[in-house]
Amino acid sequence: MAEGTVKRWLDLRGYGFISTDEYEKDVFVHHSAIRDRSFLKDGEKVRFDIEETDRGPRAVNVEVVS
After folding, report:
1. Which CATH number does the domain housing residue 52 bear?
2. Domain that holds residue 49
3. Of 11, 24, 33, 45, whose CB is crowded by the most CB atoms within 10 A?
């Protein structure tokens, strides 16, 4: 699993981006990939798996780290 910080979350659109040291580009995250809730907040620490897509890395199985 990778770890990162929510860089930007767009509530109305239901997606955002996570910054991580493991990837140069920000990792896309959709609300459907978040465990136990449907939103994130800017600055939250998260743990997630990476799924490679034709548009770049995508976060799946996202958990907020307490």
Report:
1. 2.40.50.140
2. 2-64
3. 33
What is this structure's pTM? 0.91
Domain count, the chain: 1
Closest CA to 4 of 53, 52, 56, 57: 57
* Residue 36 neighbours by CB under 8 Å, 6+ apart: 63
pLDDT tens, position by position, 23-34? 888 999 999 999
**C-alpha span between 36 and 25 (Å, rounded):** 26
Instruction: Output the 3-class SS for the chain.
Output: CEEEEEEEEECCCCEEEEECCCCCCCEEEEHHHECCCCCCCCCCEEEEEEEEECCEEEEEEEEECC
pLDDT in tens, 35-49: 988 899 999 999 999
